[in-house]
């Protein structure tokens, strides 16, 4: 009797704590936020590094501006700036559209969604009708300290939730199983939090996730229960479940949602700021897309699905055996990009998606190699390859099924890799054929424009970093080159952590891949040279000798 009474009191306390989280309040006897969430902020560069960065940016701008000759604004040069202005207007107007939509979603549309979702959770707590949560966690040879922090936070969050939670952990070895089991016994409320351990077969993350989802299916979740897919290096903050599940009750057509991320980075200051900049840009773009209740990815870090979606046999099969037919590469399976497979299934089946900008999960991040360029290259090659492999089939859905704005964003993914190279191409060609000072003028433009872009993105995070202008340009220019490179090699895949990679291309495939890459690059440079007047523009008179040679009596 005593234990039953104690359990009842404990449940009541948990419900009161849940309500306080939903309402955004803290009780007097509740642990402080720092104790409940010891990892609650991103890892950023040091103050000294930021000061040196600002000094470097100002020094570079002043030095370049001093070498900028007045002759560049003289007559005869205006066509270069006009052409650059047209392309720049397209790119910056598109960025402005995303920023405007971000503001509309963040401060007009989403607050209404949040209010309705919180009210739904309050009602569900009162009537004991909260949906059950099934959390699928996949990890492969994670560091012990990361595993401890991830599962400690997850067990505490699951115990504070007002309904049963089942955690299915797909792990690597028996030692990890024993360690997670001990954490569950010590930290979780075992009357409400169940743990299912599954050992991965070593054939890839997709197989592990599919088997774990089938284990969830065997536990017969209700259609409106919630299935969480998360990585084993994701830190769940307190109150996450309560602040997320309400949207599934207020939006019957909602198939999945994802949250904001912040990076807990191991690396130098440039690595830390690169991750934070990437996540700030993601925050703006995902908010903009969510205004149309569609997204471009359901990140594997942390995404929640309606159980009727995640347990659908075709959903599980798509996740495990996703493949694409390509006119040149044939049919090949996806190794990476499970988040693109779940996203495509959800999008193609007509479900809506949502991004929660006020709810963030932590991600333990580390470059694959200590060297910045090599490490970021490996990550961007994987990310961009996943994007390009899914882009074509998503575009084929059409604007009606994919959503008009989302469909235009998918088209822009194909265009932006080329428009990002127009500026440096114009500057380089004009410097070679006209005046080397064009490179100086372009460098000044890059420093100024990327600074203001960095200010806009930094405003989303409440700070401005001097690293942002340099990192923005690096990601935009180098990232565009990597996208073009991968667009002709979408069959080539690798997963650094698990050591999986696609089969090597044959000599014939390698020849045609290099041929089409060179052809596309040469065509682009030719068009840029004509537009910048580095090459003469072809006219009708230039073709008259050719037309005359093949017409009439055949005389040359």
Q: Report the sheet with the most strands, covering strand number, pairing sense and barrel closure.
A: 8 strands, mixed
Radius of gyration: 27 Å
User: How many beta-strand segments?
Assistant: 12
**Span of the ends, CA to CA:** 108 Å
Order of neighbouring strands in the sheet with most strands: 3-2-1-4-7-6-10-5
Q: Please identify the structural class as seen in this structure.
A: alpha/beta
State mean pLDDT (0 to 100 scale): 84
What's the helix count?
A: 20
Strand content of the residues, in percent? 5-15%
| Range of helix content | 55-70%
Shape field? globular
The residue ranges in which pLDDT falls below 50 over 5 or more consecutive positions are 1-11, 20-36, 550-556
Would you write up a description of this structure?
The chain is 60% helix and 13% strand. It has 20 helices and twelve strands. The chain has helices spanning 2-23, 33-36, 47-66, 78-127, 144-160, 174-187, 205-217, 240-250, 269-290, 307-310, 313-321, 338-348, 372-395, 398-402, 404-419, 422-433, 437-461, 467-487, 507-531, 540-549, and strands at 133-138, 165-171, 193-199, 226-231, 234-235, 254-266, 302-306, 323-326, 330-333, 352-366, 494-495, 500-501. The strands form three sheets. It has an eight-stranded mixed sheet, with helices on both faces. It has a two-stranded antiparallel sheet with strand order 8-9. A two-stranded antiparallel sheet has the order 11-12. A hairpin with a 3-residue loop joins strand 8 (323-326) and strand 9 (330-333). The termini are far apart. The model is unreliable at 1-11, 20-36 and 550-556 (pLDDT under 50).
């Amino acid at each position: 009797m005593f234990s039953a009474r104690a359990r009842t009191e404990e449940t009541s306390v948990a419900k009161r704590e849940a309500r306080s989280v939903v309402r955004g309040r803290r009780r007097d006897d509740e642990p402080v936020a720092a104790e409940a969430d010891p990892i609650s902020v991103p890892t950023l560069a040091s103050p000294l590094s930021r000061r040196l960065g600002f000094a470097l940016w100002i020094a570079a701008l002043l030095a370049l501006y001093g070498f900028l000759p007045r002759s560049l604004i003289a007559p005869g040069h205006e066509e270069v700036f006009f052409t650059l202005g047209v392309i720049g207007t397209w790119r910056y107007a598109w960025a402005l559209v995303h920023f405007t939509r971000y503001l509309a979603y963040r401060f007009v549309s989403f607050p209404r969604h949040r209010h309705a979702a919180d009210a739904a959770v309050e009602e569900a707590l009162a009537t004991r009708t909260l949906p059950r949560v099934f959390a699928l966690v996949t990890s492969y040879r994670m560091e012990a300290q990361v595993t401890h922090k991830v599962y400690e936070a997850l067990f505490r969050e699951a115990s504070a939730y007002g309904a049963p939670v089942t955690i299915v952990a797909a792990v690597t070895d028996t030692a990890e199983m024993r360690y997670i089991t001990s954490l569950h016994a010590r930290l979780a409320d075992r009357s409400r939090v169940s743990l299912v351990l599954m050992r991965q077969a070593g054939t890839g993350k997709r197989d592990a996730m599919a088997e774990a989802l089938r284990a969830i299916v065997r536990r017969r979740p209700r259609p409106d229960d919630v299935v969480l897919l998360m990585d084993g290096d994701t830190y769940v903050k307190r109150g996450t479940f309560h602040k997320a599940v309400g949207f599934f009750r207020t939006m019957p057509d909602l198939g999945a949602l994802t949250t904001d991320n912040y990076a807990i980075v191991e690396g130098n200051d440039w690595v830390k700021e690169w991750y934070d900049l990437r996540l700030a840009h993601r925050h703006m773009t995902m908010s903009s897309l969510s205004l149309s209740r569609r997204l471009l990815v359901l990140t594997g870090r942390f995404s929640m699905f309606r159980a009727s979606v995640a347990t659908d046999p075709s959903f599980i099969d798509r996740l495990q055996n996703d493949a694409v037919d390509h006119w040149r590469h044939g049919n090949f399976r996806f190794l990476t990009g499970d988040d693109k497979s779940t996203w495509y299934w959800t999008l193609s089946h007509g479900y809506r998606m949502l991004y929660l900008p006020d709810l963030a999960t932590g991600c333990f991040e580390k470059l694959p190699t200590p060297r910045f360029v090599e490490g970021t290259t490996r990550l961007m090659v994987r990310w961009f390859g996943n994007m390009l492999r899914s882009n074509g089939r998503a575009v084929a859905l059409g604007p009606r099924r994919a959503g008009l704005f989302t469909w235009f964003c998918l088209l822009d993914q194909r265009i932006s890799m080329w428009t990002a190279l127009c500026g440096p191409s114009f500057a380089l060609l004009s410097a070679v054929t006209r005046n080397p000072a064009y490179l100086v003028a372009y460098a000044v433009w890059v420093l100024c424009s990327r600074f203001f872009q960095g200010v806009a993105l930094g405003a989303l995070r409440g700070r401005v970093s001097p690293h942002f202008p340099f990192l923005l340009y690096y990601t935009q220019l180098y990232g565009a080159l990597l996208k073009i490179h991968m667009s002709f090699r979408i069959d080539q895949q690798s997963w650094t952590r698990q050591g999986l990679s696609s089969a090597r291309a044959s000599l014939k495939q390698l020849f045609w891949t290099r041929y089409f890459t060179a052809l596309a690059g040469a065509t682009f440079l030719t068009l840029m040279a004509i537009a910048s007047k580095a090459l003469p523009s072809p006219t009708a008179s230039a073709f008259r000798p050719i037309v005359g040679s093949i017409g009439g009596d055949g005389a040359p």
